[in-house]
Protein 1
Amino acid sequence: MVKKIKVKTTLVEMDGDEMTRVMWQMVKDKLLFPYLDMNVDYYDLHVKHRDDTDDQVTTDAARAIMKYGVGIKCATITPNEDRVKEYSLKKAWNSPNGTIRAMLDGTVFRKPILVNNINPAVSSWKKPITIGRHAYGDVYNNFEMPVEKAGKLEIVFTPQDGGKAKIILVKDFSSPGIIQVNHNLDQSILSFAQACFSYALGEKIDVWFSTKDTISKVYDASFREIFNREFEKNWKEKFKKTGIEYFFTLIDDAVARIMKSEGGMLWALKNYDGDVMSDMIASACGSLAMMTSVLVSPHGWFEFEAAHGTVQKHYYKHLKGEDTSSNSMALIFAWSGGLRKRGEMDSTPEVVKFAHMLEEAAIATIEGGTMTGDLLALAENNSSNKKVNTEGFIGAIAETLQKKLHD
Ligand code: NAP
Ligand code: MG
């Protein structure tokens, strides 16, 4: 047995739901705790526990990330009416990701995990496309209500300085309908821009930014202006020196161009656009499980997670005692990403090295032909590849890791 590596500062662990909760435990038991001596501040975000605590546990978890700096989160159910019934919940609580992101602010960077035996569905893509998703505002912090009868929707803005309130008629409803009100903050958009420029400079990749500013002439146009101003003021020279570019275009045009590009850029997107596009990129690169995701807060806090959900369908099979072949790559990379960041912040290179080795072991396992069902159909050399079940995949990675650590 090798000597355990000491992780200096406490990591914030947020457990989750369904199949990802099952895999989370296996990852900890087989890939982490045998090798690491680490303290975790544990928050159980299981939907039932969120319900029992009136969602206090989610807020507590976000505060713990603010305290320690690095959190690692499992996927969680965002309850809808079906889930309220399924788990007998008091109500359809908000998305924990939404709550945590709103508290930490910041940008979510999502990057595909590339392996050499799976080619992206888009044949021109040669390099990973990283998505930089603004993690504040828009529909994730909105106000919505049904309109049951005819009536007026007015917006009242009351200045805090005692100035005159502004009342604007938005819509005179003559029949039932629906209402949605979105907002954003200049400061949050500015830190989104800074996070993207800084990430791209670090990685030496171009930044593409796209919004629908032709239609949304105030809201989306503000994003464009804030990005432009920040770029001109603080990044233009640095980008030039590094040989990288900042490029703004309408989102429709960006989507069309991305499909013909060779990849390798950071694509900055508003909250909703980033939510949707990151799933497209992940799935085109193999599977939703082949994507890393990190929330970078302007205050220096980091939250690592899987980009996919709780893999509900597989969980129901698992509950029936059937074999599953769920892919734990994104969960493993959430842990390795968090450990690497912790190691960098604590100046403990041995922790950074372990994080690298864990990722290398996971990638080498797939490249060696051992993989879960989601990847099998896409991988080259189909005849020699072997499909393993959920536990078998983690076990195979553990074996590869064990060998690497003894080399
Ligand atoms: P999902 O969990 O992302 O799964 C959708 C489908 O993608 C699965 O049925 C599976 O396809 C495939 N897939 C996703 N992850 C996989 C993995 N690790 N290994 C193998 N295949 C994988 O989305 P969902 O089923 O629509 O949502 C389930 C729950 O997750 C919802 O309650 C939602 O609220 C929650 N959610 C949470 C987060 C988060 O916490 N970050 C994000 C999104 C959704 P096949 O069935 O074809 O095998
Ligand atoms: Mg999504």
Note: The chain has three domains: 1-114+287-407, 119-141+183-285, 143-181.
Protein 2
Amino acid sequence: MILGIETSCDETAAALVTAAGEMRSNVVSSQADLHARFGGVVPEIASRRHLELVTPVVREALDRADATLDDVEVVAVTRGPGLVGALLVGLSAAKALAWSRGLPLVPVDHLHGHVASLYLAPDPVEPPFLCLLASGGHTLLLDVRDHAGYRVLGTSIDDAAGEAFDKGARLLGLGYPGGAAIDALAQEGDAEAFSFPVASLEGDDFSFSGVKTALLYKVRDLGDEADRRKADLAASYQRAIVRALIERTQAAAEREGLETIAVVGGVAANSELRGALSDARFAPLPLCTDNAAMIASAGRYGSRLPYPRFLALDAYASRA
Ligand code: KG4
Ligand code: ZN
């Protein structure tokens, strides 16, 4: 079995996955409550909390899989991109475990991890496919031809889609993280009530900073009425983001001749997006937001580094 460890942001996660891609356990301890009162993730607080949680979370993953460390053959761990201090906690824990048990270590790119959430049993998505990766930190269109990697076709030139959801939620007083809250409130609103333009760029790139500003101005214009129109604002705002995601994704898939479209990352949990791209393959709901099962899954396709080579691995903050 492969032990996956993920600590790139504010989720401390560990999971056990078999070589065949069966998920034996998937434990995620979210620190969201800890960061909510600051309106976003505070890196230093995240690192400290990972330090407290990483060992109990690994234990819990072993317990739930009815396994011990004797059953672990490989350790897979997120190396980046993410908060460097947070990543270092998981990476150090993984190195210590691999060293003490004489196991190889596979460093995993967090974004490849999101894609690999599609490769788990019982119904894995097989390459080739066009993948939309939309999370709190990234919005990418990927051309996926094999399990080991991908080619980047387009990316957001400013805010990520999840970030746009989070910033919009903050403007509407819905708390942090706000994607799920907007999704829920939008169900009660009229998506055609307001028009929020999303910049359309050349090629496969996205831009989401303008739509957030449009919402800000609309909330200001409405004044006292904004609170009463909150559901309409949420629904219209969500509609604008989802439309932009869908248009770009479908156009890229058509141009690249890729018949299958897949969607991963936190925003893949969005109900309007799931409904609108009904032919697409979506990561299972519990595997959309950050988790370690996807990291263990990606670990099946990465190179296994022996001791002492893995000791030299460092974390990285930005997309490689
Ligand atoms: O993949 P993820 O857990 O973290 C990163 O790697 O960034 O994604 C988290 C993002 C947050 O921005 C959150 O607001 C968004 O995913 N999100 C959603 C929904 N659930 C989570 N956005 C829209 N609709 C949702 N239902
Ligand atoms: Zn993520």
Note: The domain at 129-283 is CATH 3.30.420.40 (Nucleotidyltransferase; domain 5).
Protein 3
Amino acid sequence: MADPHLVVVDDAASLARAGADVVADVIRADGPVTIVPATGETPVGMYAELAAVRARGDLEAGAVSIVQLDEYLGLEPGDRRALFGWMDRTVLQPLAIDDSRVMRLPTDGDVDAACAAFDRDLGARGAIDLAILGLGTNGHLGFNEPPSDAASVTRAVDLTPDTIAANARYWGGEDDVPTRAVTLGLHTLLGARSILLLVSGASKHAIVRRALEGPVGEDVPASFLRTAQGAVTVLVDRAAWEGA
Ligand code: F6R
């Protein structure tokens, strides 16, 4: 366990480029690589940057395995709000990673039992090489909403009012945001060989400081990054780090 490596960059474009360098290095490593890619707005520029690197012929990602980070519950098949669709548009298609390489979170039937089976399967595959994460304004990682402890497993969760308010911008309004979701647990994320946390914009200033400089605890799930087993890189733009 080591302190997170903090990198402060000028702006969102620099964040995208610096993040893409980190991810490309992992993808270019010898042997099979497993990545957890966050959806949400923050990593979109970085994924576009990776797609550009691939388009230039400098990155081959077809052999990467993907583990889904989180997904809403209660959606009909084909619902435009599915996070799988978001990941498909921003990560899988641009990087030419086939759907068959994705370990999808369970959303049907007995979700709790299916999540336990999912964690067993994931454990049998070995550690995740890289978890790419964004930071909720309430300190969540994935949909590990506060309070979430470091041992939390893959499970169904109720989204907090903060998250519903923050995600309303994706889907039109708060009434359009699903209220339940399934998420990889912090136990899985903190066990990754490496973690890349991306934080952009002044709206994340207070929470990124709390996560990295405040007390470690379940009220700010991202604070547990300071207890992660692997290498943690926190890439922050100046607006997020300085709050202006
Ligand atoms: C998305 C996810 C969330 C987001 C976080 C930040 O898959 O897991 O934890 O990473 O809410 O979202 P943005 O980047 O939209 O501010």
Note: The chain is about 35% helix and 20% strand.
